[in-house]
């Protein structure tokens, strides 16, 4: 692991990697869907006149979508051991070859 | 050979499906008259106008997409091989 | 790993010291497979699956049968489930985007302008309208052998009967259309005829002279069949042959 | 799966010793907390195991065995048409059973405020306008039937053009033709049920078709259509054919068809 220009890379145990993948994807999907639902409700599916838009609700929707994306992006830094981030850096030796 | 066929078929069926649905919505005034080819209503919203453009483009994509992969690409390969061998 | 015969020659620089890989030496592909990220995981999964498969086979009483075909389970069914669940989604898509029509209620006293069955019966309906082909027999003094309608029903029986006896006419190991251009072109002829006869069944709605339409109904299919035959023959002679050479080597056509 | 507890990784200790930023630490700790309570990963691991089990027993595919063009997978959809028509049949059966709760095959005067509407027509209209999801349900039934018919036709073409009907599969080809015909009869009887103009005049065509059969025409028309002009007996018979007789017959024939395919294997695809 280390900080290079491609971003931080944290190696975690396999079981933890599964949890990270499952729960962050779940959270991301649910919050993005809820975000769109909230946005739709606030703007009456995009048909409301600008002054009728429920600003707080719309902001909540955008926030939920952003949060979902953020969690998904953040979770991508965790990797199981042996998973190289890109093919070029796959030169490290391994003990099962 | 097979992949070109499948790509052409995919374009034909995919674009054809979208065309069929949109034509069912916008170009089928009634069951008794002309279906899928009727005149679209004149008082369309902007969404409807965009859908009409999409409808037309899907129709031509279905035809030319299939033609491109079934005729164009194999023909191009043949010609290329011929030119290369000379 | 290290081979004693070669380790002492390590300093050779003329190229003769290169040891040819034996069965134990992993290839570059294998090395790559085993060392990096996802491919390493894949490799481990394969190992695990191979091992579990072996265990299952050893403890199973399943007897492999000598069937020259593709197993339905698990191959075909898993593949089909994946593909057809997508297709079933398409049914739902169509059902929600293009709901069906409910016409005016039945009214025996008012003949509608369109009398047609559903589309899949058009071909049969077209065969019923083949009255003009019903031969007038000179022996019967110009009378028709059977009523036009009966003639149509017989035409249906002939078509279905011909399709039914196809396996008894066409035998052998040929599978692909290029291997059997004749039968493939017969098939093309049949498909095109199904289309033209369907169009003929709607003759009152087609802006064409009905005699011309009848002629076209029977002229277009043989033309299409001939084109298909020519194309398939050419393909067989040409580049498809190269592609299939390996296949022909494995299973020479009878 | 086994009741034994899997040896869990000591995540908390690992989190302490690992050099993580506070955000990462919080993130991982939250997920570990969730994981300990919801155990979703365990269920996914069950699926994972199942996947390897199934995958494992896969014999070499035909393409691997004969080292054919690896582009072959583009043709798989054509090979799935037979199974697809079975699935469309199942979809049609389920939606049809639901529609059957609300439909009534009677040509008596109906309650809908339309000139000449029968009970059958009114119940279809009620399904489409009053019943929750009824409009979609009828649409689904209709489309599943249409798509099944189309899939059956295309399946026959696939079998024809790949020579899959050849020996030893002649019997299955003939059973397939029977199934194709029964599918069309299924479609035809269903087409008549709403008892609108199209249905009535399609019924008229059917009566004329059976009348034109030599010798037994009138008898067939009486048996199938209950008379020489479509009416209540026709509707009743079509209904019984569509929801009682044909489902049993077609399901049985499909079972035989599939059983033969299962025993003989898929004709080697190329």
Average pLDDT number of chain A? 79
Major sheet of chain A: 3 strands, mixed
Fraction in beta strands of chain C: under 5%
Enumerate how many helices of chain A there are, as a single number: 2
Helices and strands, with pairings:
The complex is a heterotetramer of chains A (97), B (86), C (254) and D (270).
Chain A: E1 2-4, E2 7-12, H1 14-42, H2 55-75, E3 78-80
Parallel strand pairs in A: 2-3
Antiparallel strand pairs in A: 1-2
Helix pairs in contact in A: 1-2
Chain C: H1 4-7, H2 28-35, H3 37-59, H4 72-97, H5 122-128, H6 148-169, H7 181-201, H8 210-237, H9 239-250
Chain D: H1 11-17, H2 22-38, H3 40-56, H4 62-66, H5 76-79, H6 81-100, H7 119-129, H8 134-161, H9 170-192, H10 197-211, H11 217-225, H12 232-264
Helix pairs in contact in D: 6-8, 7-8, 8-9, 9-12, 10-11
Protein name (chain A): DUF7315 domain-containing protein
Transmembrane segments (chain A): 20-39, 55-75
Keywords (chain A): Membrane, Transmembrane, Transmembrane helix
Characterization of the model:
The complex is a heterotetramer of chains A (97), B (86), C (254) and D (270). Chain A is α+β, with helices and mostly antiparallel strands and 97 residues long. Helices cover 52% and strands 12% of the residues of chain A. Chain A has two helices and three strands. The radius of gyration of chain A is 19 Å and the shape is elongated. The N terminus and C terminus of chain A are likely disordered. Chain C has 254 residues and is an all-alpha fold. Helix content of chain C is 59%, strand content 0%. Chain C has nine helices and no strands. In chain C, helix 5 packs across helix 6 and helix 5 packs across helix 7. The longest helix of chain C is centred in the C-terminal third of the chain and has 28 residues. Chain C is extended, with a radius of gyration of 32 Å. Chain D folds into two domains: 48 residues, no CATH class; 189 residues, Cytochrome Bc1 Complex, Chain C. The model of chain D has no long low-confidence stretch (mean pLDDT 86). Chains in contact: A-C, A-D, B-C, B-D, C-D. Chains C and D meet through helix 3, helix 4, helix 5, helix 6 and helix 7 of C and helix 3, helix 5, helix 6, helix 7 and helix 8 of D.
Gist of the model:
With 254 residues, chain C is an all-alpha fold. In chain C, 59% of the residues lie in helices and 0% in strands.
């Amino acid at each position: 692991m280390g900080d290079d220009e491609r971003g931080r890379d944290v190696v975690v145990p396999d079981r933890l990697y599964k949890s990270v993948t499952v729960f962050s994807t779940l959270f991301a999907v649910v919050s993005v869907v809820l975000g769109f639902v909230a946005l739709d409700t606030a703007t009456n599916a995009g048909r409301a006149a600008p002054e009728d838009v429920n600003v707080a609700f719309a902001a909540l929707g955008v926030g939920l979508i952003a949060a979902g994306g953020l969690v998904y992006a953040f979770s991508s830094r965790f990797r199981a051991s042996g998973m190289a981030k890109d093919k070029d850096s796959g030169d490290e030796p391994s003990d099962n070859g | 050979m097979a992949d070109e066929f499948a790509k052409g078929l995919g374009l034909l069926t995919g674009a054809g499906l979208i065309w069929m649905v949109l034509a069912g919505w916008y170009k089928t005034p009634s069951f008794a008259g002309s279906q899928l080819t009727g005149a679209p209503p004149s008082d369309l919203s902007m969404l409807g106008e965009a859908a009409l453009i999409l409808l037309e483009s899907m129709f031509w994509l279905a035809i030319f997409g299939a033609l491109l992969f079934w005729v164009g690409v194999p023909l191009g390969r043949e010609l290329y091989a011929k030119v290369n061998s000379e | 790993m290290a081979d004693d015969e070669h380790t002492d020659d390590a300093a050779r620089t003329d190229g003769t010291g290169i040891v040819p890989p034996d069965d134990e030496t992993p290839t570059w592909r294998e090395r790559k497979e085993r060392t990096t990220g996802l491919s390493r995981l894949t490799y481990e999964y394969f190992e695990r699956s191979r091992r579990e498969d072996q265990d299952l086979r050893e403890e199973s009483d399943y007897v492999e049968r000598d069937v020259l075909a593709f197993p339905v389970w698990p191959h075909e069914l898993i593949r089909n489930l994946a593909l057809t669940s997508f297709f079933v989604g398409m049914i739902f898509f169509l059902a929600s985007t293009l709901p069906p029509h409910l016409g005016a209620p039945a009214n025996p006293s008012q003949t509608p302008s369109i009398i047609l069955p559903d589309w899949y019966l058009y071909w049969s309906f077209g065969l019923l309208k083949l009255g003009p082909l019903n031969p007038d027999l000179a022996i019967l003094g110009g009378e028709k052998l059977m009523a036009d309608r009966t003639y149509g029903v017989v035409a249906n029986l002939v078509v279905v009967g011909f399709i039914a006896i196809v396996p008894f006419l066409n035998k052998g190991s040929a599978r692909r259309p290029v291997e059997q251009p004749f039968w493939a072109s017969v098939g093309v002829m049949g498909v095109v005829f199904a289309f033209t006869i369907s169009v003929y069944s709607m003759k009152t709605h087609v802006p064409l002279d009905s005699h011309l339409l009848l002629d076209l109904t029977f002229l277009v299919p043989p033309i299409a069949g001939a084109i298909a035959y020519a194309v398939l023959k050419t393909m067989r002679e040409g580049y498809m042959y190269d592609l299939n050479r390996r296949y022909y080597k494995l299973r020479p056509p009878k | 799966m086994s009741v034994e507890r899997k040896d869990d990784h000591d995540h908390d200790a690992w989190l302490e010793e690992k050099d993580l930023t506070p955000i990462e630490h919080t993130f991982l700790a939250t997920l570990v907390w969730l994981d300990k309570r919801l155990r979703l990963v365990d269920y996914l691991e069950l699926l994972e195991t199942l996947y390897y089990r199934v995958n494992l027993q896969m014999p070499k595919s035909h393409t691997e065995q004969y080292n054919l063009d690896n582009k072959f997978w583009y043709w798989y959809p054509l090979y799935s048409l037979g199974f697809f028509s079975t699935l469309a049949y199942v979809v049609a059966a389920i939606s049809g059973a639901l529609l059957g709760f609300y439909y009534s095959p009677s040509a008596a005067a109906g309650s809908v405020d339309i000139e000449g509407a029968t009970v059958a027509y009114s119940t279809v209209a009620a399904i489409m306008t009053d019943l929750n999801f009824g409009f979609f349900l009828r649409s689904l039934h209709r489309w599943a039937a249409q798509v099944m018919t189309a899939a059956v036709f295309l399946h026959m073409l696939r079998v024809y053009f790949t020579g899959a009907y050849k020996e030893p599969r002649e019997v299955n080809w003939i059973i397939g033709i029977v199934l194709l015909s029964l599918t069309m009869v299924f479609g035809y009887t269903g087409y008549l049920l709403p008892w609108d103009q199209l249905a009535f005049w399609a019924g008229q065509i059917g009566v004329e078709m059976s009348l034109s059969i030599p010798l037994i025409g009138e008898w067939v028309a009486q048996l199938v259509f209950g008379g020489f002009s479509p009416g209540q007996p026709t509707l009743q018979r079509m209904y019984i054919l569509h929801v009682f007789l044909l489902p049993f017959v077609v399901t049985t024939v499909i079972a035989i068809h599939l059983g033969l395919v299962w025993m003989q294997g898929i004709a080697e695809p190329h």
